[in-house]
Records
---
Amino acid sequence: MSLWHTLLLNLPFEWAQYDFMHNALLAVLLVSPLLALLGCLVINNQMAFFSEAMGHSALTGLALGALLGIADPTATIVGFAVVLAVAMVLMRRTSAVPPDTSIALVMAFVVALGVVLLSRGGGFARYSRYLIGDILTITPGELGILAVVSGGVAVMWVFLFNALFFVSLNRSLAASRGFPAGVLEAVFSVLVAVVVSVSIPWVGLLVINSMLILPAATARNLARNTRGYVLGAVAVSLLSGVIGLVCSYYWNTATGATIVLWACGFFALSLVLRRR
Amino acid sequence: MDQTSHKAMRSCGECCTRLVDFGVTLRGSRVLEQIRLHMHCGELTALIGPNGAGKTTLLRAMVGELPHTGSLRFIHHGNIETTKPLRIGYVPQKLELDRTSPTTVMDLFAGALTRWPLWVGTRKAVACEAQAKLELVGAETLLDRRISEISVGQLQRVLLALALTPVPELLLLDEPVAALDQGGMERFYQTVSKMRTEYDLSILLVSHDLTAAAQFSDRMILLNRTVLCEGAPKDVLLNPLIRQTFGFGFTEQEIDGRRPLFKQLEHEQCALQAGEA
């Protein structure tokens, strides 16, 4: 950590002189590639709407934390998202409703429930931090938790990649190669739920899904193969993350949303390059 | 007759796949019941039946995607009987693809052959193996192409090559020619026939083109929620159950009268060469 601070202090930039920016940069370097890696599989497996619902479920998780009187509601946000992810996987298997409709229904329910619970007595404004995120307040301890989660997810991702790749192409083909589609999708859904919900206090639930989807979607426009797709997504994510963080310092804007705007810019650029 | 004995000599005759009282229930309704099947290596079995007969469901249960009742047994070389599946190669009807999918043919093989995420590593050995399998099916120029930009026929060949990597003991083909034109279909059947003898495979092929299936298969099975009849392709097609099931039947002339595909293709190639000269 001290090495990191010394390194940044030697940079000739104004933003590099503050500890909170050092922590925030480290958080961006941890979270953005992780979200990009997951995003590649989320797009392959057509789960973008599912991950959006996971982000919005944080409202109910937050409300549960508040009801239980827990100071740091991250645990209830993660817990509720995981339970919801499992419930949605089971719902998709048994329900006759089309998957996107059932996701929309669940999302409507958890958002409404969260808002109702949080707005009792007119205190909703207290929670707006979770809507837009606040990466500048991250502490070294919280960074440590983020690093552990990121490491765990990255390891799981390595083991799941090929299997989920085949599941996304054809479920029977995946089964013939010994990859059980149902189990794998459930594990991956839980993984997405965990990553999205631990990132929400820093990125904000309104834009978290964009950080998951946009880098992968951008790389997909230009990639000639899967390697280009994955590495491109990580590159776009890191670029928009670092540029967005620095811009938000100078513009005095919310960091998560600034990062997402840069990612949108890169996506637009990829569309132009693809046309040519 | 000659052809059959030749095949019997080539195949080991020991390994086979046996389904006993096999059944599948989906969402409370019984889709397949009391299926009895016996497939030998070196044999191509055609599975025919009307829409909704459960042909695809049978394959999905056999690869382990759907739960089933009854037993699915595999007898390996050396008469070792297990319920543990043999290596199964499966060629699906289609893949879920969108136009921006960056997946290349090479990615498919890397995903099948390596444990690391398929985009990691130098992959030279994988590329060699993939290239060898692609050459077998006449798709050797496609290794670095994206699967979203090649034709349906090319993709079917690639999927066949993938199903043969590593070489399986049982090959399941789910209406592999449904989207192909006549020439593509014949080439595909030819390739599959070649594989059967080359690798001593049991092949189960779902087909809607009954006469074409009859020409290429060693045995034929008529399925409609259970096995209605089975036997030599010609006998099955002449069975009155065919008319009951499909609403139309075949005469012996119609089955024999169809131009033998191999001869026809050879003829065309000769004509082509003559034309070039």
---
Amino acid sequence: MKFTQALKHLFFTLTLLLSGTALADRTLLNVSYDPTRELYQDFNKEFIKYWKDKAGEDVNVQQSHGGGGKQTRAVIDGLEADVVTLALSYDIDQIAEKARLLPKDWQSRLPNNSLPYTSTIVFLVRKGNPKGIKNWADLVKDGVSVITPNPKTSGGARYNYLAAWAFAEKSYGSKDAAKDFVQKLYKNVPVLDSGARGSTTTFIQRGIGDVLLAWENEAFLAINELGEGKFDIVVPPVSIKAETPVAVLDKIVKKNGTQDLAEAYLQYLYSPVGQKLAAKHFYRPYQPEHASPEDLKRFPKLELFTVNEKFGGWPQAQKEHFDDGGTFDQVYAP
Amino acid sequence: MNAVSAYSFIASKKLTLSDPDWIRYALIGLTLGIIGLFLVLPLLTVLIEAFAKGWAAYSASLTHPDALAAMRLTLLVAVVTVPLTTVFGVSAAWAIARFDFRGKSLLITLIDLPFSVSPVIAGLIYVLIFGAQGWLGPWFSDHDIKIIFAVPGIILATLFVTFPFVARELIPLMQEIGHEEEEAALSLGASGRQTFFKVTMPNVKWGLLNGVLLCNARAMGEFGAVSVVSGHIRGLTNTLPLHVEVSYNEYDFVGSFAGASALAALAVVTLVLKTVLEWKQNQDKRLKG
């Protein structure tokens, strides 16, 4: 029959076309959170070149991005990431605990607690800062509309929440006051997107809200890509140090035969090239001496506190604030 | 005089039979307005945004390797799911229209299930079954078979949401036609196969084609269920609808709307085919009648 012939032909072409995309010998899958897209687009190109020079092998690096919590869930459910580059160590702890893909002491395996770069949370406001937002306290004022993603699914959102909480606890002196403060803050939030990138598009493309609580790199990127002269970055005097760790997933690299490649990939993030690229994409590099001074000039100085200092580490912060029945569930009523 | 009174009689009769002109025009205007505002205008926006940076940027983003991979995957998913759904639809419709058995109404309800279940749930159930922490996931993982976050999972999720399209189209049709013609064929000595291809198929072919078209449109356009099981690996498990979202999130608006325009083009092709089918079907009926 003509039809079956045609169908056979079609299937054959399809397989050919599909296999055409995977010509490189070995492939790494890097599962990451939302705002790192541009960084890894650049970094992967550099790494592929570096590996070709070093080992003479053509490799391919695939990327998957989304809200950090969602990505973590996908890895636990079987998304076979060779490396994860996530927004917070708690997410990688979860992978170690629930899926046992890497040992629990993973964070001590790479320099600086597996943090090749860090970031912080700043405010992005509309040009000229019409609502006069300078500090965390301004976010709870009447008539200020705040955009931040959902802390249940987004790592960035958890940093936002904890930063506001720590500010309030210090300024007003008690946990109850802090809870009141974040409750007022989330009353001013009209939409909770599931990831940082969704919130940025809500703020910029759809024009909703007066202030976006954003990753520092996301705020810079948004201005560069979309709104030169339409937005201002406001840096609060105090904010949270966003520790964004990276790790190799042992079980998966062993299965895929990519252990050396995956390890070299993460090591390369610490190299002068990796550090320079991190700073170029508005991440604060672990070794600033490798970054170009113009890039470093863009990072304003501010007082930074860590989750360990203020909340006794991520497991405790998670349990107290973001697990079912935690403070977020108590304060947020849509 | 007589003629004039007859004319005025007819004229007055006409007036009472049809709505006054202003209602007619108001209704037509309203419908056109709503369609224009909510259907045509957004489609135009897609095109305007897609061509915002000119033809070169548009074609460059459509021929980007990631976009091409997304199109290939979308076509592959449709090529695999549509025949399966068709076979299922025909057998289910056959069983329901031709045989009487217990639990028939339950079966009809079950076929409709994917219509009433949110596509996100459709994706999640497959994660729960085939995911690394799911029922069957560890077994598949041990045998190095990837289902979730790979092409098979995407096809499964698409199958789930497109399941009822062909069956739903055929069941009422076959019930309406009845089985007298088939019985006649059988009693005249035709084999079961001959009866199916020579009697049943010609009777239901338009309904079948219609169902296949709708199924195809859904298979290519499905977002929710596929998004859950895809893992969003660029160039590998992003279908065209997911590619649109990914590009949008990367501030690549030309790329995003170019992808959307490709999807819209597929939808328009489907619509045109559907119109042609309906027109042919009417001709067919006229010839028969």
---
Amino acid sequence: MIKIGLIRRRNACPMRDRRRNLRLSAYLLASVMGALSPVAVPPAMAADQAPVKPALPPGYGEVQVVVLGVTAPFFTFGLVKRFEQIPGVEHASFNLKRGTADVIVKPGATVTDDDLRHAVRNASFSIGSIHWIAHPSAKAVEN
Amino acid sequence: MRLIFREIRALPTLFAGALAVLLALSLIAPARAQITFPSASPISAGNVIVRTQPTVTEYSGGLQSFYDENIVLYGASPDLAFILENKSIVTNSGNIVSNGKTAAFTATGFGDTVLDTRYNLYETDGVGSTFRIAPYIGIDIPTGMDNVNNAVPRTLQPASGEWGTREALTSSWQTLFWNAQALIGYQNYAGSDGFQTGSSLLADAAFHYLIWPSDLDREVPTEIFASLETNYSLSAVDRMNGMAISGTGGQLWTVDPGIIYSTPKFAVDFTALLPILQQYRGPGASRYDYGFEMMFRYSFFTYHHW
């Protein structure tokens, strides 16, 4: 058992010490994870909070593609590039745990399910499903 | 917190289990295998991965070997990949005994090149997992220097000067939290100027375990893996003008713990090569003490593919 800097005082309230130790441990863990992370994590975000997703700009489309077989960030490189190669695709990102690619489509662009299937196969993976969250409008919508 | 400690306590058990699996896999077939051997991992069509891999090996009697292997991997189609391996520089140095006198030697030069073709024969994919089997065949091209130092025996020259072939079956089982890979192969040489390197049976297995981060429910920029690899080779003796060269051939089995830092564009690893079994045919062999290998891998993307 590793104990670094944890408080254990004689004749002290065990519950209070336990709570204090828990808080200290959580803080230490958050500090270590923050130091290891390539991007500095503010203390408020240390408790595993997913960043808030910005709203989709007006007129843009969004499609979620379930891709089977992706297991590590190194393999997402070719997949994301394949999606971004489709004319009209603005940006693509990948969530490893859910196995979903989030593809943002420019206003007025025509991206078909076949384009997405073709991109996934060219990346050497298999398609799960395609779910359009928002289709792009014919042209950019003014705010 | 208690849960974290329980997980930390469970890690040695997990690694012991993984080691047992690797040892069992290695015993299936004997092998001289290279560290970070080719796997059946997916590669996107048009993706180019460049890898450089300097390796230092220390042998008993003061013999030291250094080489830098550069590998270019190209995804020609979703199932077909070409792999070009070249030892850009090889240095063997140590002491050689001749007529009762000991003299220091160094043999430095270009190494040979191997061109491999890998085809993805079987693939089953799930969310965050994939299992693939891919055979590959390769050809050894004698591009290196096989006579840079006349005082040094042929086995210590930077290159063998021989054409050769390599056939292997490799498989990968990858999940979000661990990867297991295995390879069984055979390497054969044609001989050159009376010298022939003994053919080899190769067996490799590797296990990579994700140690950071634990949360993958987001766009993950970086991962750190603990790796444990094992390489086994069973080689025939090298021959000069048909005569067996003493101290060559035999079997070598190494266990290689390491650590891998991986991002979508590049990866770095550091691996120690530790022999646990070595038996050579005849006296005069330099025994393998230990080795270190570093690897830097970078991913490019092209729009050119089949």
---
Amino acid sequence: MNFINHLANESYLHFVLQKRYWLETVMGLGLLLFIFLGLFYGFAVDSSAAQGAEQESLDRLIIGFAVWLFATGCYTSATSDISTEVANKTLEQLAIAPKDLSYLIAVKTCVHLFSALLVFSGALLVLCLVTGRNLDINYFVLSSSLIAAAPSLIGMGYVTAGITLVHKKATIVQTLIFVGIIGLVSTQAYPLNAFAFAPFALGASVAKEAVSNVNIAEVMPAVYLVVLNSTLYFALGLYVFRKCDRYARSKGTLSHV
Amino acid sequence: MKQPILTANALHKDYQTPKGTLCALDTFNFSVSPGEVVGLLGPNGSGKSTFVKMILSLVEKTRGSIQAFGQDTNSRHYLKKIGAIVEGNRSVNERLTILENAKYYCRLRESKFDLAYFNDLIKKLGVTDTDKPCRFLSTGNKQKAAIVCALIHRPELVLLDEPTLGLDSFGTDALLTVIREQLEKYQTSFLISSHDFDFIQQSCHRITVINKGNKVFEGNLDELIGLSYRYKVSLPRIPEPKEESSIRTFKRSECTNSWTFFISAVAELQALLNFAFANGVGEKVRMETFELKNQYMGLFK
């Protein structure tokens, strides 16, 4: 059975769960929108008299929030799957499938990544509609930098997923990384500086440059760096996950709850 | 003789604990042939679940080898041919219905989902409330759902760890029927680890008893019975049978007023009953049949 068939199977699972528990999803997104509106209008009132640069800041706030939603989706794609499988007590069924656990998690991650992209696009549209702003941005720069940066956070998700495999609960690590993601998204790593070495930071910064309607050719060297950064963090995440998987199997704790 | 589909050679597992090394399985040898149902018995902590998990690669071996379908368990392809319930009903996604679970796990094991076969299993196991997510099901129905998921991809070897957990008598009987049918139709092999002695006695061709990681007994039910008796028959003392009577050769113990015979074969039982009726004490005969549980307990005394 090839990758496509596994992808179809995981999409089926995702679709069934989203359909059955739609209220949970809608309420979660509603709460996030509510938080965003609090931030946006608080900021807008303060800068009501502002023009020019401040107006761009409001656009950056919208983009930043949408990028944060996307980043959270990328990070949680791997880690939430393992946590859910542990909580549902079905991890061992996944671990005794003919395909390797990291392969299956990668398939699940693809489904979540697609879902995160949909949420990101939808969120951007809703945020623009609700705030009445018409964003003049370079969508090509925005999407290419985000897609290039996504594997770095997926890699971080693999690290947490690996820790969850061994210890079954990694709540503190997860919370820390969630806070860290806010930092990574808000950090200015472009023009290039030391923050560019952190996962996702450079990709998020380039994505925010889309507000300034920057040309793709201008940011291309940075996008290459984003790809390199992503590859390294993804490889690191995969390595840690596989080590943790092996460790859990040697200790016999893989199927423990 | 058929080639075994599962063999374990000198399998050894040590766990490192704060108190030192704990040996869970000690140079364990084992095999399962096609169409064979093997029972795995042993007290808590004897190494049964560790062994089952080692077959599934959920636990890494320290030494030795396991071969399934001619492949080393380091390659994962053999897992397509295996279905399993590990430690009771921990095998279904509680947010999905039984049908959704079966579809998902069947495809996860790279098999095509067969709705007619699914309906057949559901019917035979007597599963109800199939349209509800599994979290709303009774413990017994959840267990049946796990059994359906373990069988849905038509595996050649099924590992069942405590399969009767939460099942009522009807459920246990239904499971026995399904196992027999799988044997008959598909030559499926089963490895059943359980503390349900009746179920083991009724379903298994062969039994392996392990304790503290070591094999204590291996053989078929008759061999285990051969260690003692199948029927224990008590009757009042009557005149000694004639010298040529075979009854004199039967193993027996004597009390002041009664004899207790330990019989292994049905023909011997028949002869003894004839003897009792011929001497007018037929109605006073008291008989106990063999119980696997007693025999099993005897192995540890």
